[in-house]
Amino acid sequence: xxxxxxxxxxxxxxxxxxxxxxxxxxxxxxxxxxxxxxxxxxxxxxxxxxxxxxxxxxxxxxxxxxxxxxxxxxxxxxxxxxxxxxxxxxxxxxxxxxxxxxxxxxxxxxxxxxxxxxxxxxxxxxxxxxxxxxxxxxxxxxxxxxxxxxxxxxxxxxxxxxxxxxxxxxxxxxxxxxxxxxxxxxxxxxxxxxxxxxxxxxxxxxxxxxxxxxxxxxxxxxxxxxxxxxxxxxxxxxxxxxxxxxxxxxxxxxxxxxxxxxxxxxxxxxxxxxxxxxxxxxxxxxxxxxxxxxxxxxxxxxxxxxxxxxxxxxxxxxxxxxxxxxxxxxxxxxxxxxxxxxxxxxxxxxxxxxxxxxxxxxxxxxxx
Length: 368
Known about the structure:
With about 375 residues, the protein is mostly beta strands. It folds into two domains: about 5-70, no CATH class; about 80-360, TolB, C-terminal domain (Neuraminidase), CATH 2.120.10. It is built from four helices and 24 strands. The chain has helices spanning about 5, 10-15, 40-70, 90; strands at about 80, 100-105, 105-110, 115-120, 125-130, 145-150, 155-160, 165, 175-180, 190-195, 200-205, 210-215, 220, 235-240, 245-250, 255-260, 265-270, 280-285, 295, 300-305, 310-315, 335-340, 340-345, 350-355. The protein has a four-stranded antiparallel β-sheet with strand order 1-24-23-22. The protein has a four-stranded antiparallel β-sheet with strand order 2-3-4-5, with no helix packed on it. A hairpin with a 3-residue loop joins strand 23 (about 340-345) and strand 24 (about 350-355). It is globular, with a radius of gyration of 31 Å. The relative contact order is 0.11.
């Protein structure tokens, strides 16, 4: 408040410049009842007190709401730069609803879901090879949703066929991992990950379970079956594991990632609000070489960034798709991969975006 608003003027306290007798009559003839103040002065004082009380109440309510409500996302602490040579605009006509990306050396591979094929891109972003279009795996993919490139072959989540196909660079299918068929329903493979020991983890959207296969293709068990009991997730999509064998599963409609230990213990939840986030749709999760966890959020059109301890760090993109004309913006992020400090995001509408995360913007080392 200004000084004129915080207290009445002297002329308002003593209208005629004279003093006010205690318990008597004021010079203007108004009666006083003990305070020695005019009734007008008391009304002004009361009004000021009322205003102050209202202001304090408003401030208190704001602080209560701020402290009791879930914290929103902080300002991004990560520097994000788009590498221009590769972008959706370069080859947008060559793919339809891409859903996964895998990086190997100087090549980037994109799962072209709408056309049931895999595209190979060179360093300039041009398509130099198309896999599963005219070769052995042609017409065998059916709306594939996820893909990893490991040891020179593709592990493709062949979603509508309920299996994972291992495909070579020449388009030959060398192995198939078939999800167990549940009574009355057909399995849908929506996520695939190859662990360090060669085990293959597959998300089954239909049953909500994660199947584990031996490297030779034999079904081993559902995750948790040999410990605390089979885990059931809510519409599981992308998944990954860390060096300790912990499993990270993106739950689509809950908008979050669950981290579970090898013995079936829930360790953490990764989400923008620290729990179930219905306004989000989780499509993929990866862990970078720096130990950061990235969650693709299709509905909010961003990629959330976390520490391994599930601390929220910021975003890649612009929250809720604001300023979609910006080169930093995403519209429908589906799949992720990371090499060094570069994060590759495949967006079903904008194509391939490459973000360079500057290590200078990292937080201090996290305590797990």
